[in-house]
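task queued by scheduler; priority normal; single chain, no ligands, no partner chains; default sampling; output format set to structure tokens
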Amino acid sequence: MRIDINCDVGEGMVNETLLMSYISSCNIASGGHFGTRKTIDKTIQLAIENDVLIGAHPSFPDKENFGRKVMNISKRELYKSIQNQLDLFLERLDQFNQKLHHIKPHGALYNLIAIDEVAAKNFVAAIQKYMQGVFLYVPYNSQIEGIAIQNDINIQYEAFGDRNYTEDLKLVSRKHKNAILTNPKEVYNHIYKMVVEGSVKTLQGNEKEIKADTFCIHGDNQKAQEILAFLSTEFSKKGFKIG
């Protein structure tokens, strides 16, 4: 039994060498909230060395706020920015003779297209030409899920191992003190419940149905390495392999 653990990397945390051996797919910052040719190349190389599937991680073009605030930007500007980020990323992948496995939007863009139908349609229009043989990571029961399916885009459901959920399966705001999980055992129990029972316990203590093909641990989580090492050990004991 396999579990896919993904991680947002290439974001300036300089911890990728510590994380890559524990994950099976990665989302590399593509120049919107963070990322240059140099950081993209370095992270791609680490992914190749660790046999990790490679994904692009486009966002609002907002390095100042690390892509975690919705930008007041026109549809055209955002469309062009997303394509510029993906063009840069694919150019770098070509230098390593690698294929793109998936696209995962970052931060505020990810959260926006999960709930806003118009934004989700605009995002799909921007990425459509890149999606041949490529997956889009989407949250379960979201606007982007439905729009992607309507446009024949292959999706993989993503859930977050180090984030708490609200009653409507949205991520608890980072402004909330209990938004982020840093205790490795809590993260393991959180993911294990989703894997085995297909449900997640919300911050309010209720259980909600959820689907997940891949589970994210944020690379900027202060306990990321400790969490990933713990997951690897504990899931192995249960007969699961991360990969």
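post-processing summary
- The chain is about 40% helix and 20% strand.
- The chain has a mean pLDDT of 97.
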